[in-house]
UniProtKB/TrEMBL annotation:
It comes from Orchesella dallaii. This is Speckle-type POZ protein. InterPro entries: BTB/POZ_dom (IPR000210), MATH/TRAF_dom (IPR002083), SKP1/BTB/POZ_sf (IPR011333), TRAF-like (IPR008974). Gene3D superfamilies: 1.25.40.420, Apoptosis, Tumor Necrosis Factor Receptor Associated Protein 2, Chain A, Potassium Channel Kv1.1, Chain A. SUPFAM superfamilies: POZ domain (SSF54695), TRAF domain-like (SSF49599).
């Protein structure tokens, strides 16, 4: 399987009522961010001339026929010839699928069972120019398509016009995206010939490592950062530096969900220094709710001494009921 670029299923009907024909395509080793993933795409085939709005879901079944890996249910307007296919690039990692323990559960007779369920929304197709879906749904679908194309432009370096340097990595990006999302990048890259970044179309970042910079760029283009769980503290700081409100808010939420006795003082000071008001409030609440236990912990007292110069600790003291 690993030697194949694409595997196509036989054509199958959705049901006897609508008579739409579909085909499933599988890429066993789809390269995404330098990792191999199982990718699955659903295509509408045949002589369809109208747009068809459908929902679909992929499941990888074990040898007992139960779904072990399952994607979320997704919707798409399948349009021939322009947009006849849609799918999921990262169903599961290729390495994980071929691990011996997984193969025993999923692979039988050198075969892998994939279930593709298709639902035609509203039961019927729609003609171009006369949609039978709401304006809100149409807007959402167009936004989803636009988001997919923006991600594609970033991942495949289509039309890039600025380079972001971090560590040993060069990230290709788009000036319009950076300046539209960040007033700091706008000041660097827009109409200021005295700025080195403007003259060279290059932004050099030295105070964050390449994984954090990549996480920032991924978030600007896709609203997600693969390193969020592990590097949320650094992502919060880079978001504050470049005035990335959305990323900063996401980081505050993730960090606040992981407050512990061992890290709450450090996170409180970080939140104060990074003007993270939501995170700061959550840290205050955590300390006040657990003050009896914390007051008896030597590690908490040590942290208080470590950060004793910070004005936030005085604020914490004054906030004690």
């Amino acid at each position: 399987m690993s030697d194949l670029q694409e595997i196509e299923s036989p054509v199958f009907p959705e049901d006897t009522k609508t008579k739409h024909n579909w085909q499933l395509s599988m890429f066993p080793k789809k390269k995404v961010e330098n990792k191999d993933y199982i990718a699955l795409y659903l295509s509408i085939v045949g002589g369809v001339t109208d747009d068809v709005k459908a929902s679909f879901q992929f499941s990888i079944l074990n040898t007992d026929g139960r779904a072990v890996i399952q994607t979320s249910k997704r919707s798409h307007i399948f349009s021939r010839p322009n947009y006849p296919y849609f799918g999921v690039r990262k169903v599961t990692s290729s390495a994980g699928l071929i691990a011996p323990e997984q193969q025993q559960q999923l692979v039988a007779n050198d075969s892998l069972k994939i279930l593709c369920q298709v639902w035609i929304d509203d039961g019927l197709k729609q003609k171009l120019g006369a949609p039978n879906i709401s304006a809100e749904e149409t807007s959402r679908l167009w936004k989803d398509d636009l988001a997919n194309y923006i991600e594609k432009m970033y991942k495949e370096s289509i039309g890039t016009d600025v380079t972001v340097l971090a560590g040993t990595s060069n990230f290709k990006a788009h000036k319009a995206i950076l300046t539209g999302r960040s007033s700091v990048f706008a000041a660097m890259l827009n109409n200021n010939e005295n700025m080195l970044e403007m003259a060279t179309a290059t932004v050099t970042i030295t105070d964050f490592d390449q994984e954090v910079v990549k996480g920032m760029l991924d978030y600007l283009y896709t609203g997600q950062a693969d390193c969020m769980e592990e590097r949320a503290l650094e992502l919060l700081q880079i978001a504050e530096k470049y005035e990335l409100t959305g990323l900063k808010g996401h980081c505050e939420y993730v960090i606040s969900e992981n407050l512990k006795f061992e890290n709450v003082v450090m996170i409180l000071v970080l939140a104060h220094n990074q003007n993270a008001s939501y995170l700061k409030s959550r840290a205050f609440d955590f300390i006040n709710m657990n003050k009896q236990e914390l007051s008896q912990m030597e590690s908490f007292q040590a942290d208080v001494k470590t950060y004793s110069a910070s004005e936030i600790l005085a604020e914490l003291y004054l906030a004690q009921p």
